[in-house]
Amino acid sequence: MQHNVDRWTRTIERNWALICKVVGISEYEGVIINWRPIRGATKGSYCSSKQVINMDSRKFDSTHDMIDTLGHELTHYKQYNDGVLEQDWNDNTMKWECVWHGEHYKQASTYNSYFNRPWEVEARAGGSKVVKAYSQKIRTILEKRKAAKSPQKAPVFAQKAPEEV
């Protein structure tokens, strides 16, 4: 399970303040990130009862992919902490339901119904915002490095302008 865990952990540590600022949480929140295998195509999940983000380091194609997943799961963390997303047990169906802004949602039966849930739409947007901020930070760093390595040369001017005829 050590597949890129050190790399991803360093990236998160170096960018934690930025990630938290974009998501809208304090960088001192008590969220735990747990690297572990996850079945199927799922790259990350959030467990609200334990305040744990589970992420599978084997499934990320790039740093941006990992940052996107982390931003997505941190958005869920924020949703639960803000009380806009909750879990509620339904005695009639004997299943857990999500409660979004007071409205009960039964478990999704298809990928599309899951994908279009309002808290998932918001979480995907949160992940995208984090990727955008991270990419901008990297671009700025690279531009500064490039500017420092290649000093600007002063333009060369002709000694004397040719005379008009």
Largest sheet: 3 strands, mixed
Helix residue percentage: 40-55%
- Low-pLDDT segments: none
Percentage of β-strand residues: 15-25%
What CATH architecture would you give?
2-Layer Sandwich
Oligomer: single chain
Number of strands: 6
What's the pLDDT, averaged over the residues? Answer: 91
Shape: elongated
Side-by-side strand order of the widest sheet: 1-3-2
Commentary on this structure:
The protein is an alpha+beta fold. It has one domain (5-130): Zincin-like (2-Layer Sandwich). Helix content is 46%, strand content 16%. The chain has four helices and six strands; from the N terminus they run αβββαβββαα. The protein has helices at 5-23, 63-82, 111-115, 118-149, and strands at residues 32-35, 44-47, 52-55, 85-90, 95-100, 103-105. The strands form two sheets. A three-stranded mixed β-sheet has the order 1-3-2, with helices on one face. A three-stranded antiparallel β-sheet has the order 4-5-6. The longest helix is centred in the last third of the chain and has 32 residues, at 118-149. The mean pLDDT is 91.
